[in-house]
Amino acid sequence: MREFELIRHFASLAAAEGLNLLDDAAVFTPPLGRELVISSDAIVQGVHFLPDDPPDLVARKLLRVNLSDLAAMGATPLHYLLTISVPPATHDDWFAAFAAGLAVDQAAFGISLLGGDTTSTPGPISLSATVIGHVAPSCALRRAGARDGDGLWVTGTIGDGALGLRALRGDLPDPGGYLADRYRLPRPRLGLSLHGIASAAMDVSDGLLQDAGHLARASGLSLRIDAALVPLSPDARRCARLDLCLTGGDDYELLLAAPQSHEIALSRECDRAGLAITKIGYFRGGSEGVETVNAPEAIGTAAGWSHF
Amino acid sequence: MREFELIRHFASLAAAEGLNLLDDAAVFTPPLGRELVISSDAIVQGVHFLPDDPPDLVARKLLRVNLSDLAAMGATPLHYLLTISVPPATHDDWFAAFAAGLAVDQAAFGISLLGGDTTSTPGPISLSATVIGHVAPSCALRRAGARDGDGLWVTGTIGDGALGLRALRGDLPDPGGYLADRYRLPRPRLGLSLHGIASAAMDVSDGLLQDAGHLARASGLSLRIDAALVPLSPDARRCARLDLCLTGGDDYELLLAAPQSHEIALSRECDRAGLAITKIGYFRGGSEGVETVNAPEAIGTAAGWSHF
Fold first, then answer.
1. By the number of CB atoms within 10 A of the CB, which of A103, A268, A286, B230 ranks highest?
2. Which domain holds residue A200?
3. pLDDT grade for A20, boundaries at 50, 70 and 90
4. Which residue of A has its CA nearest to B202?
């Protein structure tokens, strides 16, 4: 299967540097005077997406969870590679729909395919992507860099993806389908120019409290989060499951640290990009971890202070 | 599981550019004045390796099948990224052995880890790697480029991997374990300087005859292969399964096209690298495909002329 499938379905997606997917590898001239930013993420059927999720949305989710890592570094995306492991009986229609999803997001994010691999698997569909972007030298955003007193900010709304997964499983109501859509189609927060404004950044993929803990630890600090300030969509608010919103994951929003002196610049830059941003806490000295106030009982102290 | 596993087991393998695997992506300054060569390949338990293959050898096979793609392009390897999807109950020992295998081949091939992802899967172990290498501008070897009259050459010996798989399944004798070892541990043919000598190149992963067909087609030519000239190891010869050797795959040798005027240079360069190389046929005009003479009956005309 290997290269036949890939070439037949995906050749039209290839960058010139992908050599029409006809060679053993892509050859690629890096943009002059820029650093490259590169990340790989895998998604597995039944773990990161549902067996009946439409293939075009699965393809777009694969790209978007990867692009979210570039967004966290402040990078501009350029290219990607794919590996696709599917059951031998996978129908041509699946590949066609998957490729159509890739085409939509290639256009949306200005990226093109460099290469990859298609194999069979006796198990569930397993996908990986590697995304390549670029930044000006020494301008990548990092997790380490927050300072004592910096505010903790988060883009967009939190919890929609985690609630959407429960909705798709029939465990929560989702009358308009908004939450399910947020689960299936993350919004990588690309396009912000935050070098010199944010002191640290990461994307929220494993749950807000857990990832905030990572950000604090990477900076050698502790963190106080006010759960009452965490931005929720109207649909999420209606579910009344703040516990899931704070810990559920699948957000693909950005967590940012910024000193008070840069708060206006941060708000302006997010405004320019049409992106809401909310201050939900602040960094402080010490190694106690993440203290969460106004959290629901279900979170408890354990999660509030975990991961240190 | 995601990043905890990766960081705990793999941080010591990370390049400086991998930021200790603690950020969302790696930041990497491409070597000045070089083109980057990049490729992704996936391997799946039960398809590309056996459930009881030792984890350190699985890790090395993953790297080596990817490095073989760089070898085919004439590139020097630099870095890699990994995605690892394993059952939730996978023991720490598995990760430790897997990481130990990576460490051995990082040293052997002069590469280091940039990043990646660890996820759980309800299915078999699914692995992918992306390898990054570099070449001088416009010096990458390509599949298209062979000319009418060029010789077809192959490095090393053919069929050991395919026979080794049968041996590990108990279908063929392999008293010294040589064939099994060749299946488990490909030898990517890196380190040759073939720009200006070879007119086309690719690696043999899907079977000699099939891949030779790809090389001919990419160059707009046909090919005549003398099966009697295909180099076999003593262990492969003992199996007397030339049909499997010609079509079995898992060779990870290089297929090269070279004009007669460069045959001495080609032999010298392979000699310098301590690598055997054998002429097994020649390219010719037309679009008839691959004609194989002296092939065993089991191959038949079908395979001899397939894939065009």
1. B230
2. 151-304
3. low
4. A24
